[in-house]
Amino acid sequence: MITYQLSIFAENKPGRLAAVTQTLAKEKINIRATTIATSDTFGVINLIVDDPPRAEAVLKKAGMTVRLSRVLAVVIPDQPGGLDKLTQLLFAEGININNAYGFVLEGARKAVFVVSVDRIEAAEKLLEEKGFQTLDARALSAVEPVHYKKK
Amino acid sequence: MYWEKEIETMDRGNLEKLQAARLGETLGRAQKSPHYGKVFKETRLDTDRIWTVADVGMLPLTTKEDLREQWPYGFLACSRDELIRMHSSSGTTGRATVIFHTDGDIAAWTNLLARSMYMTGMRRSDVFQNMMTYGLFTGGLGFHYGAEKIGALVIPAGAGNSKRQIQLMRDFDTTAIHIIPSYALHLSTVFAETGVDPRRDTKLKIAFLGAEPHSEKMRLKIEELYGFKGFNSYGLSEMNGPGVAFECPEQNGMHIWEDNYIVEIIDPVTLKPLPEGEEGELVMTTLLREGMPIIRYRTKDLTRIIPGPCPCGRTHRRIERIKGRTDDMMILKGVNIFPIQIERRLMEIPGVGTNFLIILDREGYNDSMTVKVEIQREFFGGDLHQLEALRRRIVEELRSDILITPRVDLVEPDSLPKSEGKAVRVVDNRQE
């Protein structure tokens, strides 16, 4: 299954990330994972959220430059070699990873690895064939990341 | 102390008679050009009448736009076979302006530079290092020819390569230099780095500071750093280039060579002549140009005539340091840049949004330009590499046009001041 990542263009200055998170918080949109890539004076904030289309709409309404792009959220075992199995598979098929980040799931000793790849349909098909579980937006919003664990 | 005593100290009455005679000849030549031929006919101008200097105000003004529209040959008043040189303004955006010279034009221009440099004390025993760009830009070749005419030893060093400049100065006992003021400040830091004291370890005594306006304070600072006398000069390619007006040893205003030009100061709005001493736009008419005479050219430079005679004995009037421009031209590292050049280039690049802002800064002794560019909302693909590629492309495209490498920052759409009406496209943070 394919899911969506939000990318936001932001100048590299105080308050830009805060503006994004404030807008999402107001709309009660949950952020599951985030990465930020910065150049000298500007950068791109990538977010995995529980409701991508609505997040896109509210951020655009707030005047931000947003792009929704398709990514794969792959469930991998949280153990040595877990990620390697996935990356080797993509490498063997010549699929290039443009960006990747992940988070660990509670309890299940599993992790979700978000990959942005150049040939997404081919990658999706390949992962399905090889028995990898991929999550869509709804499934993603249902899983419990480990940092939510109540002590 | 004079290169041409008779002309330089000619009494005002005779000087104006000489100007009037040359104006008549100039109009006769100008009429042969397609542009003035048409303009004179339309305005029913009788070029054969007897002219006085006071009559110049009835002639049509000429603008840079006229020169652009008539590019390249519309102002030519002679056959192309008679031309021996062309110079052109910088920039590849839109149409540049081009100025053609006959051998007589080059000789007259060279003579003005020889006269100007001689006035400051340069002689054939001097070693002159020309640290200015050679090529289409008039500053390099103009001074080069003038110095050779005096008979000085000329080192055609060209611009840049600071360590080699210092080495040349020391190896060949350079006594006079031609340098952009901001570069003179920068070079002083290279002197300090290499442990060479320009005051003690060089023979420098004269500097021609040109190609960009600078304050009296900056001149004094440069003189202090180097221990030479720095002379301000004024010129523009449409009127030859350097050597139009030059400081004498009094260093109080620049003598504008009135045997070669008729000088007016006009109100840039009403276009009416202003009384002597009042500040306005400098307007000039060439008097010796053969290839490309230009009548009442609007320089867009703001200055005033300093009333009264100069103690040096020269009767040619003096203009003050240029106070500014009537348009939005910027001068950075000696290069003339118009915001419109940057705008045109930017708007041709896919991904660039509607607004941009040019910021000029002085970091230490170096001037720099930052261009903040809004990206187009639809262009953003979520990828940092794509943005980096756009940024690099903008830098490259601007560099190829304005000949200066700007810093480019991509900013969010609608984050810059809107370009409604007269948008503020330039913020100049450079302090004196």
CATH superfamily of the largest domain in chain B: ANL, N-terminal domain
Could you describe the largest sheet of chain B, including whether it forms a barrel?
9 strands, mixed
Can you tell me the CATH topology of the largest domain in chain A?
A: Alpha-Beta Plaits
Gross morphology of chain B is globular
Explained architecture:
The complex is a heterodimer of chains A (151) and B (432). Chain A is of the alpha+beta class and 151 residues long. Chain A has two domains: 3-69, VC0802-like; 71-148, ACT domain (Alpha-Beta Plaits, 2-Layer Sandwich), CATH 3.30.70.260. Helices cover 32% and strands 38% of the residues of chain A. Chain A contains five helices and seven strands. Chain A has helices at residues 16-26, 52-61, 82-92, 120-129, 137-142; strands at 3-11, 31-38, 42-49, 65-77, 97-104, 110-117, 133-135. The longest helix of chain A has 11 residues, at 16-26. Chain B is α/β, with parallel strands linked by helices. Chain B has two domains: 5-326, 3-Layer(aba) Sandwich (Rossmann fold), CATH 3.40.50; 335-428, 2-Layer Sandwich (GMP Synthetase, Chain A, domain 3). Chain B has helices at residues 5-8, 12-30, 34-42, 64-69, 103-119, 138-150, 162-171, 181-193, 198-201, 216-226, 339-347, 384-402; strands spanning 83-88, 98-102, 127-130, 153-155, 176-179, 206-209, 229-236, 241-247, 254-256, 261-266, 280-286, 297-303, 305-306, 318-319, 324-325, 330-332, 335-337, 352-363, 366-375, 407-411, 426-428. In chain B, strands 4-3-5-6-7-8-9-14-13 form a nine-stranded mixed sheet, with helices on both faces. In chain B, helix 6 (138-150) links the parallel strand 3 (127-130) and strand 4 (153-155). In chain B, helix 8 (181-193) runs parallel beside helix 10. Chain B is globular. The model of chain B has no long low-confidence stretch (mean pLDDT 92).
